[in-house]
Amino acid sequence: MQNLTINGDRLWDSLMELAQIGATEKGGVCRLALTDLDREGRDLFIRWCEAAGCTVSVDRVGNVFARRPGRDDSRPPVMTGSHLDSQPTGGKFDGAYGVLAGLEVIRTLNDLEIETDAPVEVVAWTNEEGSRFSPPMMGSGAFAGVFSEEEMLSRPDNVTGDLLGDELKRIGYDGAAAVGGREVGAYFEAHIEQGPILENEEKTIGVVTGAQGQHWYEITVTGQEAHAGPTPMPLRRDALVAASRMIDAINRLGHAFPPYACATVGFVDASPNSRNTIPGRVFFTVDLRHPDDDTLAAMNDRLRAEFTEIAEAAGCSVEIVDFWEFPATPFDEACVSAVRTAAEQGGHSWRDIVSGAGHDAVYIARVAPTGMIFIPCEDGISHNEIENATPEDCAAGAEVLLKAVLDRAVGESG
What we know:
This protein is of the alpha+beta class. It folds into two domains: 8-211 and 328-409, Aminopeptidase (3-Layer(aba) Sandwich), CATH 3.40.630; 213-326, Alpha-Beta Plaits (2-Layer Sandwich). It contains twelve helices and 16 strands. The strands form three sheets. Strands 1, 2, 3, 4, 5, 6, 14, 15 and 16 form a nine-stranded mixed β-sheet that branches. Strands 7, 9, 10, 12 and 13 form a five-stranded antiparallel β-sheet that branches. It has a two-stranded antiparallel sheet with strand order 8-11.
């Protein structure tokens, strides 16, 4: 195990070739879920998997599974993967690295003629980003039973209203396999950190012990539209003023629970959005995160109390809708230990870390023992065309993934 290595050049070349599909001028990718470009990326991935001797299947929500058989093919597979869809101005590595690191594990097992006792599967999950269809992490969520198949297929495009199921059929990825309902021996996901901690501490590997809980809200503040000139300041019911105070409260809320709390307003829409009209309605989103469920609940309580108080003081009303949430997710101790041991065997510097972002692993952890591997990304930047990682770090993460997969796929315990 100590001497096992992957082909870093091959992994890097595959990452760069995939990045040409949906390439942007600034060096990133735009490969939104279930677009023609997403289809091209999926097609390329499947060609590579079939060339590596894998059997490929697609389930009814478009998740793609590439299976390398084991000596005992009746055993539940050890699974690894991530996603191929991107943000509108995304980077080359977010999601794609985890899928292609998994493919590199298969290719390396073939090169070294290593048989595993359990099958090994690489998966590309559908619509992880949630950029085109909301919420995110739908494919893995459907596999884990969080979303029903019908619920997922009926989700509309956030802009055009096209249904996810119709787009899945249009690009030819409405597969025949059942969604979930089968045992998985273990699941590992390799990913760029999407934050600055590993780079700042000069660590190569993040041993992910779990993921933060998240709570998303949709907020509507309603006041009264009025003329910007004749309406005296004391008589105004300005929805934008109230919303701006709420947005400031969200920022303060994030600072009130250090060091892990995160609180973000990412989307704002004021109506009627006219230069000389007092806004009568404002819609905005809130994203709260914390690795402790009790703290996240306390943040939720403060949000509701402060928003109600602000709205009343401004003569407005506020509607708070719970859009999406999941609890803090600890990962399986044996899988976490396998990643840690693999990092040590490879001589890589490492540290334990909690994921600040949601990943497919969060939902798969509900139905299978799960672990994650982080590698650094330049300046901690992700969801951005300038997102970057080094070939050396990509190779190190894939090597750790290989050893962690073997830890679970070889031997009686699986």
